[in-house]
């Protein structure tokens, strides 16, 4: 079972997941919940420290949310994937698509740095 908790920090939604991100009702519920968050802000930080497994549909959900956030001018960052999830990201070469951070603080700092960077 996938458990999800959310927190807002400034204009960033922090999503902490525990369990498995897989095909089925809970994966669909996860996708819908995050899609709703994107209407509030396109900046999502998804903490995967307690996610034990992600299947191909779970990866599809994350990629879809990533694309949706980019279209809204934001980004989806992943934080602290477990070794197993990190391996799945590497094997599917999605580790080159997602920005993966070791801590929430690092990801938030990068969001903040992006917000304060001078425009060219």
* Topology, number of strands: 5
Question: What is the CA–CA distance across the termini?
Answer: 46 Å
Strand order of the largest sheet: 1-2-3-4-5
What is the CATH first-level class name? Alpha Beta
Low-confidence stretches: none
Helix fraction bin: 40-55%
Description:
The chain has 4 helices and 5 strands. It is globular, with a radius of gyration of 14 Å. The longest helix has 16 residues, at 25-40. It has a 5-stranded mixed β-sheet with strand order 1-2-3-4-5, with helices on both faces. The mean pLDDT is 91. Strand 4 (75-79), helix 3 and strand 5 form a beta-alpha-beta unit. It has one domain (3-116): Transcription Regulator spoIIAA (2-Layer Sandwich), CATH 3.30.750. With 120 residues, it is α/β, with parallel strands linked by helices. Helix 1 (25-40) packs parallel to helix 2.
How do you describe this structure in short?
The protein has 120 residues and is of the alpha/beta class. The protein contains 4 helices and 5 strands. The protein has a single domain, classed as Transcription Regulator spoIIAA.
């Amino acid at each position: 079972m996938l458990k999800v908790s959310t927190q807002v920090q400034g204009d960033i939604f922090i999503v902490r997941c525990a369990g498995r991100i897989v095909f089925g009702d809970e994966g669909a519920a996860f996708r819908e919940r995050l899609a709703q968050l994107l209407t509030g802000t396109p900046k999502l930080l998804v903490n995967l420290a307690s996610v034990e497994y992600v299947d191909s549909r779970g990866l599809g959900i994350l990629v879809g949310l990533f694309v949706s956030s980019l279209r809204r001018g934001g980004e989806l960052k992943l934080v602290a994937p477990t070794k197993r999830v990190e391996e799945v990201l590497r094997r599917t070469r999605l580790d080159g698509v997602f920005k993966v951070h070791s801590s929430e603080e690092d990801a938030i700092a990068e969001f903040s740095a992006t917000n304060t960077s001078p425009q060219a």
